[in-house]
Design goal:
By secondary structure, the chain is an alpha/beta fold. A 6-stranded mixed β-sheet has the order 4-3-5-10-6-9. The longest helix has 28 residues. It is rod-shaped, with a radius of gyration of 31 Å.
Length: 290
């Protein structure tokens, strides 16, 4: 059963004429007759009562007509949706994002992308970098913003640049007026650390270990608002990308020597992306290839 056969069937049903149906579907009248005959042979029923004046649906043909009109309407809707997807007039992108590591770099880019493609919907899945990689590997999301580390073999990625890390301190902290702070000066501090599902957790532990600093962890959380309130209340200090916490109640002090980490937009290798997701990935790639 082919769509052209069904188009011919609907045309004959509505116009009650093989000749007029042929004009509507832009094929010859014998071709319409052949299409209907093959359809009847395939179904094993007679669809039309034919006479010299008109072609009228049989009782079986009327039942078939009622169902086929629904099917063809769905085909028409599906075709329209496909056109809209191709033209980026609709579509959903499932994007893994970490507020701890991605905020400052990605917010401007996503805002610009949204301006260019206002009909596309971006569905944020907020997780740590490790969890985002796992979801990419399991095809649960299209793209993800992650920390670029040694575990990127399974992914294609666009390097979105480096972020400088700074120390965030409460207003009354003894180091609040320092121009810069070495990691070694934090050996007696309480730390508010990202959770283990965030690559930054491992990154910070490695950098602190290089300075023989064993962090005394008071809390582990990936929620920026929680980190902010914990610092304000004096529950610890945090090392986060510059610009993550912006409030006069918290001091941000650069590290000495400076400490940076790289963030990338990643996708699973050899994964076929939707047109919308591929457009976002290409947009990010082009934004950083200039």
């Amino acid at each position: 059963m082919e769509l052209k056969q069904l188009e011919c069937f609907l045309a004959v049903s509505k116009l009650k004429s093989f000749t007029r149906a042929a004009e509507q579907v832009y094929i010859s009248q014998p071709s319409v007759t052949t299409a209907i005959r093959r359809l009847e042979d395939e179904l094993g029923i007679i669809l039309f009562e034919r006479n010299k004046k008109q072609a009228v649906l049989t009782p079986e043909g009327k039942i078939f007509y009622d169902h086929i009109t629904i099917v063809m309407d769905d085909v028409s809707k599906a075709t329209q949706i496909a056109v809209e997807l191709k033209n980026l007039n609709c579509g959903i992108i499932n994007l893994g994002i970490s507020s701890i590591t991605s905020l400052s770099i990605t917010s401007f880019l996503l805002s610009k992308f949204r301006t260019i493609y206002p009909s596309l919907k971006i569905n944020f899945i907020e997780e740590g970098s490790y969890s985002i990689k796992k979801m990419l590997a399991e095809d649960r999301i299209d793209l993800g913003f992650v920390i670029i580390d040694d575990d990127m073999d399974s992914f294609d990625f666009v390097n979105l640049g480096s972020q400088e890390l700074v120390v965030y301190l409460p207003q009354f902290h003894r180091l609040k007026n320092a121009d810069s702070i070495p990691l070694s000066a934090l050996k007696n501090e309480l730390f508010i650390m990202p959770k283990e599902n965030c690559s930054m957790h491992k990154f910070l532990n490695m950098e602190l270990a290089k300075q023989n600093v064993v962090p005394h962890v008071s809390f582990e959380t990936n929620y920026i608002q929680m980190i902010k309130h914990l610092i304000i209340s004096g529950s610890g200090t945090a090392i986060l990308p510059q610009g993550t916490l912006q409030t006069s109640a918290i001091h941000s002090i650069p590290l000495m020597p400076p400490l940076e980490m790289s963030v990338g937009a990643a996708k699973k290798k050899n994964k076929h992306l939707s047109h919308a997701a591929y457009t976002l990935y290409t947009f990010l790639k082009n934004s950083f290839s200039l």
